[in-house]
Amino acid sequence: MRATVGDRLVQHGRVVGQHDRIGEIVEVLGREGNPPYRVRFEDGHEGVCSPGPDTEIRHKEMLQ
């Protein structure tokens, strides 16, 4: 999984009724675009994330 600053990280809900969490990658802490990433979520929360299998990266080129 590789990302750049400005890409979106989408954590899919794991149980029924749990919504997806979407955040913007504000810093790439790993080498060559690899995790971990500093992510700012829609609710303003910011944290370091090492994405799991329930996560996808939406590259900023795809968002335009």
TrEMBL record:
SUPFAM superfamilies in the cross-refs: Cell growth inhibitor/plasmid maintenance toxic component
**Where does the source fall among the domains of life?**
Bacteria
Domain DUF1918 residue range list: 1-57
Report any Pfam family annotated for this entry.
DUF1918
Gene3D superfamilies the record matches: Domain of unknown function DUF1918
Where do the record's region annotations for Disordered lie? 37-64
Bias kind Basic and acidic residues: ranges: 55-64
Protein name per Swiss-Prot or TrEMBL: DUF1918 domain-containing protein
